[in-house]
UniProtKB/TrEMBL annotation:
Pfam families in the record: KDZ (PF18758)
PANTHER family linked: CXC1-LIKE CYSTEINE CLUSTER ASSOCIATED WITH KDZ TRANSPOSASES DOMAIN-CONTAINING PROTEIN, CXC2 DOMAIN-CONTAINING PROTEIN
Protein name: CxC1-like cysteine cluster associated with KDZ transposases domain-containing protein
InterPro entries to which the protein is assigned, alphabetical: KDZ
Membrane-traversing stretches: none
Length: 320
Protein backbone atom coordinates (compact mmCIF):
# COMPACT_ATOMS: atom_id res chain seq x y z
CA UNK A 1 0.00 0.00 0.00
CA UNK A 2 0.97 3.59 -0.55
CA UNK A 3 2.32 5.40 2.54
CA UNK A 4 1.84 9.11 3.07
CA UNK A 5 4.68 9.34 5.57
CA UNK A 6 8.29 8.22 5.56
CA UNK A 7 8.03 6.76 9.07
CA UNK A 8 5.09 4.48 8.23
CA UNK A 9 6.81 3.34 5.03
CA UNK A 10 9.90 2.36 7.02
CA UNK A 11 7.81 0.47 9.57
CA UNK A 12 6.27 -1.53 6.69
CA UNK A 13 9.82 -2.55 5.79
CA UNK A 14 10.49 -3.86 9.31
CA UNK A 15 12.48 -0.97 10.78
CA UNK A 16 11.75 1.81 13.28
CA UNK A 17 13.14 5.28 12.47
CA UNK A 18 14.77 7.45 15.14
CA UNK A 19 13.22 10.59 13.65
CA UNK A 20 9.69 10.97 12.24
CA UNK A 21 10.46 13.50 9.47
CA UNK A 22 13.91 12.99 7.95
CA UNK A 23 15.33 9.84 9.56
CA UNK A 24 18.96 8.97 8.97
CA UNK A 25 19.16 6.04 11.39
CA UNK A 26 16.75 3.10 11.61
CA UNK A 27 16.70 0.04 13.88
CA UNK A 28 15.19 -3.26 12.88
CA UNK A 29 12.11 -4.49 14.71
CA UNK A 30 13.84 -7.82 15.29
CA UNK A 31 16.65 -6.07 17.18
CA UNK A 32 14.14 -4.12 19.28
CA UNK A 33 12.13 -7.25 20.06
CA UNK A 34 15.27 -9.12 21.06
CA UNK A 35 16.16 -6.38 23.54
CA UNK A 36 12.59 -6.29 24.91
CA UNK A 37 12.61 -10.00 25.66
CA UNK A 38 16.18 -9.91 27.00
CA UNK A 39 15.35 -7.02 29.31
CA UNK A 40 12.33 -8.84 30.74
CA UNK A 41 14.58 -11.73 31.74
CA UNK A 42 17.44 -9.51 32.98
CA UNK A 43 16.44 -5.96 34.00
CA UNK A 44 20.11 -5.09 34.57
CA UNK A 45 20.76 -5.46 30.83
CA UNK A 46 21.03 -1.79 29.88
CA UNK A 47 20.41 -0.15 26.52
CA UNK A 48 24.05 0.95 26.38
CA UNK A 49 25.30 -2.63 26.83
CA UNK A 50 22.97 -3.86 24.10
CA UNK A 51 23.96 -1.09 21.69
CA UNK A 52 27.64 -1.85 22.32
CA UNK A 53 26.90 -5.48 21.48
CA UNK A 54 25.27 -4.45 18.19
CA UNK A 55 28.23 -2.21 17.38
CA UNK A 56 30.66 -5.08 17.92
CA UNK A 57 28.60 -7.37 15.71
CA UNK A 58 28.57 -4.80 12.90
CA UNK A 59 32.19 -3.70 13.36
CA UNK A 60 31.15 -0.14 14.20
CA UNK A 61 32.71 2.11 16.81
CA UNK A 62 30.35 2.82 19.70
CA UNK A 63 29.19 6.40 20.21
CA UNK A 64 27.05 7.62 23.11
CA UNK A 65 24.45 9.19 20.83
CA UNK A 66 23.63 5.72 19.51
CA UNK A 67 22.17 4.81 22.89
CA UNK A 68 19.86 7.83 22.74
CA UNK A 69 18.75 6.93 19.22
CA UNK A 70 18.05 3.35 20.24
CA UNK A 71 16.09 4.58 23.27
CA UNK A 72 13.89 6.75 21.03
CA UNK A 73 13.18 3.88 18.64
CA UNK A 74 12.53 1.51 21.53
CA UNK A 75 9.95 3.88 23.04
CA UNK A 76 8.20 4.10 19.67
CA UNK A 77 8.25 0.31 19.33
CA UNK A 78 6.74 -0.21 22.80
CA UNK A 79 4.00 2.31 22.03
CA UNK A 80 3.22 0.56 18.73
CA UNK A 81 2.95 -2.83 20.42
CA UNK A 82 0.72 -1.34 23.13
CA UNK A 83 -1.54 0.18 20.46
CA UNK A 84 -1.78 -3.17 18.66
CA UNK A 85 -2.64 -4.94 21.93
CA UNK A 86 -5.33 -2.32 22.59
CA UNK A 87 -6.91 -2.94 19.18
CA UNK A 88 -6.84 -6.71 19.73
CA UNK A 89 -8.47 -6.32 23.16
CA UNK A 90 -11.19 -4.18 21.61
CA UNK A 91 -11.99 -6.80 18.99
CA UNK A 92 -12.08 -9.52 21.68
CA UNK A 93 -14.32 -7.32 23.89
CA UNK A 94 -11.66 -7.24 26.60
CA UNK A 95 -11.48 -3.45 26.81
CA UNK A 96 -14.10 -2.71 29.45
CA UNK A 97 -12.94 -0.75 32.52
CA UNK A 98 -10.80 -2.85 34.87
CA UNK A 99 -11.22 -5.94 32.64
CA UNK A 100 -7.65 -7.15 33.07
CA UNK A 101 -7.74 -6.58 36.82
CA UNK A 102 -10.97 -8.54 37.15
CA UNK A 103 -9.53 -11.49 35.19
CA UNK A 104 -5.89 -11.46 36.27
CA UNK A 105 -6.17 -14.56 38.49
CA UNK A 106 -8.88 -17.17 37.76
CA UNK A 107 -8.55 -18.76 41.20
CA UNK A 108 -9.17 -15.43 42.98
CA UNK A 109 -11.56 -13.62 40.66
CA UNK A 110 -13.78 -16.40 39.28
CA UNK A 111 -16.64 -17.71 41.41
CA UNK A 112 -18.44 -20.99 40.78
CA UNK A 113 -22.14 -21.51 41.33
CA UNK A 114 -22.80 -22.90 44.79
CA UNK A 115 -19.19 -22.33 45.88
CA UNK A 116 -18.75 -21.99 49.63
CA UNK A 117 -17.56 -18.44 50.44
CA UNK A 118 -14.17 -18.12 52.11
CA UNK A 119 -13.20 -15.83 54.94
CA UNK A 120 -11.33 -13.62 52.46
CA UNK A 121 -12.75 -13.28 48.96
CA UNK A 122 -9.26 -12.22 47.81
CA UNK A 123 -6.08 -12.42 49.86
CA UNK A 124 -3.36 -10.09 48.58
CA UNK A 125 -0.03 -8.63 49.65
CA UNK A 126 1.58 -5.30 48.81
CA UNK A 127 5.03 -3.86 49.36
CA UNK A 128 7.55 -1.45 47.88
CA UNK A 129 11.10 -2.07 46.74
CA UNK A 130 14.39 -0.20 46.63
CA UNK A 131 15.88 -1.60 43.41
CA UNK A 132 14.02 0.38 40.73
CA UNK A 133 15.41 3.85 41.28
CA UNK A 134 15.77 6.25 38.35
CA UNK A 135 18.13 9.22 38.63
CA UNK A 136 16.84 12.53 37.34
CA UNK A 137 19.58 14.23 35.36
CA UNK A 138 19.43 18.02 35.45
CA UNK A 139 21.24 20.98 34.00
CA UNK A 140 23.31 23.25 36.22
CA UNK A 141 21.37 26.30 35.02
CA UNK A 142 17.88 27.04 36.31
CA UNK A 143 14.69 27.58 34.35
CA UNK A 144 12.31 30.53 34.60
CA UNK A 145 10.76 29.16 37.81
CA UNK A 146 14.10 28.78 39.56
CA UNK A 147 14.16 24.98 39.23
CA UNK A 148 16.92 22.94 37.65
CA UNK A 149 15.85 21.85 34.18
CA UNK A 150 15.81 18.16 33.34
CA UNK A 151 17.93 17.00 30.40
CA UNK A 152 16.14 13.67 30.02
CA UNK A 153 14.47 12.86 26.74
CA UNK A 154 10.67 13.08 26.94
CA UNK A 155 8.96 9.74 26.39
CA UNK A 156 6.04 9.19 24.06
CA UNK A 157 4.76 6.16 25.95
CA UNK A 158 1.20 6.27 27.29
CA UNK A 159 0.27 3.39 29.60
CA UNK A 160 -3.31 2.20 29.08
CA UNK A 161 -3.18 -0.83 31.39
CA UNK A 162 -5.86 -0.75 34.09
CA UNK A 163 -3.45 -2.38 36.54
CA UNK A 164 -1.05 0.58 36.59
CA UNK A 165 -2.12 3.46 38.83
CA UNK A 166 -1.17 6.86 37.44
CA UNK A 167 0.42 9.58 39.55
CA UNK A 168 -2.78 11.61 39.23
CA UNK A 169 -4.83 8.79 40.75
CA UNK A 170 -2.35 8.26 43.60
CA UNK A 171 -2.16 11.96 44.41
CA UNK A 172 -5.87 11.97 45.23
CA UNK A 173 -4.86 10.45 48.57
CA UNK A 174 -2.13 12.98 49.31
CA UNK A 175 -4.52 15.51 50.85
CA UNK A 176 -3.30 17.61 53.73
CA UNK A 177 -5.35 15.76 56.34
CA UNK A 178 -3.79 12.43 55.34
CA UNK A 179 -0.27 13.88 55.20
CA UNK A 180 -0.56 15.50 58.61
CA UNK A 181 -2.07 12.31 60.00
CA UNK A 182 0.89 10.24 58.77
CA UNK A 183 3.40 12.69 60.23
CA UNK A 184 1.74 12.47 63.64
CA UNK A 185 0.93 8.78 63.43
CA UNK A 186 3.74 7.52 65.67
CA UNK A 187 2.90 9.89 68.52
CA UNK A 188 -0.81 9.07 68.20
CA UNK A 189 -0.16 5.34 68.39
CA UNK A 190 2.16 5.68 71.36
CA UNK A 191 -0.40 7.69 73.34
CA UNK A 192 -3.74 6.16 72.41
CA UNK A 193 -3.33 2.86 70.60
CA UNK A 194 -0.56 1.05 72.44
CA UNK A 195 -2.93 -1.59 73.82
CA UNK A 196 -4.73 -2.23 70.51
CA UNK A 197 -1.51 -2.17 68.49
CA UNK A 198 1.43 -3.80 70.36
CA UNK A 199 3.89 -2.64 67.66
CA UNK A 200 2.97 1.05 68.12
CA UNK A 201 5.93 3.28 67.39
CA UNK A 202 8.28 0.46 66.35
CA UNK A 203 7.93 0.63 62.56
CA UNK A 204 9.24 3.69 60.71
CA UNK A 205 9.03 2.44 57.10
CA UNK A 206 6.60 5.23 56.27
CA UNK A 207 8.74 7.90 57.94
CA UNK A 208 9.50 10.23 55.05
CA UNK A 209 12.42 11.83 56.90
CA UNK A 210 14.58 8.83 56.00
CA UNK A 211 14.28 9.24 52.25
CA UNK A 212 13.67 12.93 51.63
CA UNK A 213 17.39 13.49 50.94
CA UNK A 214 17.10 11.33 47.85
CA UNK A 215 14.42 13.53 46.29
CA UNK A 216 16.98 15.75 44.59
CA UNK A 217 18.77 12.76 43.07
CA UNK A 218 16.00 10.36 42.06
CA UNK A 219 12.86 11.01 40.07
CA UNK A 220 11.35 7.56 40.59
CA UNK A 221 12.51 6.13 43.90
CA UNK A 222 10.82 2.70 43.70
CA UNK A 223 7.56 0.96 42.83
CA UNK A 224 4.84 -0.49 45.03
CA UNK A 225 3.19 -3.70 43.88
CA UNK A 226 0.13 -5.67 44.99
CA UNK A 227 -0.06 -9.40 44.19
CA UNK A 228 -2.67 -12.02 44.98
CA UNK A 229 -1.94 -15.13 47.02
CA UNK A 230 -1.13 -17.03 43.82
CA UNK A 231 1.57 -14.56 42.73
CA UNK A 232 -0.36 -12.76 39.99
CA UNK A 233 0.20 -9.03 39.74
CA UNK A 234 -2.87 -6.98 40.68
CA UNK A 235 -1.83 -3.32 40.80
CA UNK A 236 1.34 -1.29 40.51
CA UNK A 237 2.26 2.34 41.17
CA UNK A 238 5.42 4.41 40.86
CA UNK A 239 6.81 6.19 43.91
CA UNK A 240 7.87 9.58 42.58
CA UNK A 241 10.32 11.80 44.49
CA UNK A 242 9.24 10.40 47.86
CA UNK A 243 9.59 7.51 50.22
CA UNK A 244 6.92 4.98 51.12
CA UNK A 245 4.14 7.44 51.86
CA UNK A 246 0.65 6.39 52.92
CA UNK A 247 -0.91 7.61 49.69
CA UNK A 248 0.50 4.67 47.73
CA UNK A 249 -1.08 1.78 49.68
CA UNK A 250 -4.23 3.89 50.14
CA UNK A 251 -4.57 4.29 46.36
CA UNK A 252 -4.08 0.54 45.82
CA UNK A 253 -6.64 -0.41 48.46
CA UNK A 254 -9.11 2.12 47.05
CA UNK A 255 -8.87 0.51 43.60
CA UNK A 256 -9.19 -3.02 44.98
CA UNK A 257 -12.26 -2.09 47.01
CA UNK A 258 -13.81 -0.45 43.96
CA UNK A 259 -13.30 -3.51 41.76
CA UNK A 260 -13.62 -6.48 44.11
CA UNK A 261 -15.82 -5.18 46.93
CA UNK A 262 -16.03 -6.76 50.36
CA UNK A 263 -14.05 -9.28 52.43
CA UNK A 264 -10.57 -8.42 51.17
CA UNK A 265 -7.50 -9.25 53.23
CA UNK A 266 -4.33 -7.27 52.55
CA UNK A 267 -0.87 -8.22 53.85
CA UNK A 268 1.65 -5.42 54.43
CA UNK A 269 4.97 -5.48 56.27
CA UNK A 270 3.67 -2.79 58.64
CA UNK A 271 0.01 -3.76 58.35
CA UNK A 272 -0.52 -3.31 62.08
CA UNK A 273 0.50 0.34 61.88
CA UNK A 274 -1.12 0.96 58.53
CA UNK A 275 -4.45 -0.28 59.89
CA UNK A 276 -4.69 2.92 61.94
CA UNK A 277 -3.71 5.03 58.93
CA UNK A 278 -6.42 3.44 56.78
CA UNK A 279 -9.02 3.76 59.53
CA UNK A 280 -8.38 7.50 59.97
CA UNK A 281 -8.12 8.28 56.25
CA UNK A 282 -11.09 9.37 54.07
CA UNK A 283 -11.09 5.77 52.82
CA UNK A 284 -11.73 4.41 56.31
CA UNK A 285 -15.58 4.34 56.27
CA UNK A 286 -15.63 2.48 52.96
CA UNK A 287 -13.00 -0.03 54.14
CA UNK A 288 -14.98 -0.72 57.32
CA UNK A 289 -18.28 -1.12 55.48
CA UNK A 290 -16.71 -3.62 53.06
CA UNK A 291 -15.00 -5.52 55.89
CA UNK A 292 -11.45 -4.94 54.65
CA UNK A 293 -8.82 -6.43 56.97
CA UNK A 294 -5.20 -5.27 57.25
CA UNK A 295 -2.81 -8.17 57.83
CA UNK A 296 0.92 -8.78 58.16
CA UNK A 297 2.66 -11.25 55.87
CA UNK A 298 4.18 -14.36 57.39
CA UNK A 299 7.71 -13.39 56.33
CA UNK A 300 7.59 -9.99 58.06
CA UNK A 301 5.38 -11.29 60.85
CA UNK A 302 8.31 -12.99 62.58
CA UNK A 303 9.75 -9.55 63.34
CA UNK A 304 6.54 -8.35 65.02
CA UNK A 305 5.58 -8.85 68.63
CA UNK A 306 3.70 -11.96 69.63
CA UNK A 307 0.48 -10.10 70.45
CA UNK A 308 0.67 -8.37 67.06
CA UNK A 309 1.10 -11.73 65.32
CA UNK A 310 -2.02 -13.08 67.00
CA UNK A 311 -4.03 -10.15 65.65
CA UNK A 312 -2.56 -9.71 62.17
CA UNK A 313 -1.21 -13.04 60.87
CA UNK A 314 -3.68 -14.77 58.56
CA UNK A 315 -3.31 -18.06 60.44
CA UNK A 316 -4.83 -16.61 63.61
CA UNK A 317 -7.49 -14.30 62.20
CA UNK A 318 -11.14 -15.23 62.47
CA UNK A 319 -14.13 -14.09 60.46
CA UNK A 320 -16.21 -11.44 62.29
Amino acid sequence: PYDNFVASALVHQGVIPCSPITPTVVITIRALELYRVSYYHNPHFSIQAYVKTLCDLHGYEFQHYLSSQFSIAFDVYLQLTASVDSLVNKVLHCDSPNWHLKHCCPACTYTLEGEQPLQFSILYALDGNDSLKRIQRKLLSEDSEGQSASIELPTCQVLTCDRYLSCEFVDQYASQDVVSMVRNEVSYLDLQDSEVNPCAGHWKNMDDQKTKKTWGVYDETRIILAVCRHGFSLLMADMVQSGELAKYPLAIISKLLEVFGKDLGGGYDIGCQFKTTLDQSPLGPLARSLNHMCLVGTFHGHAHRRLCQLDHLTTYTKAP
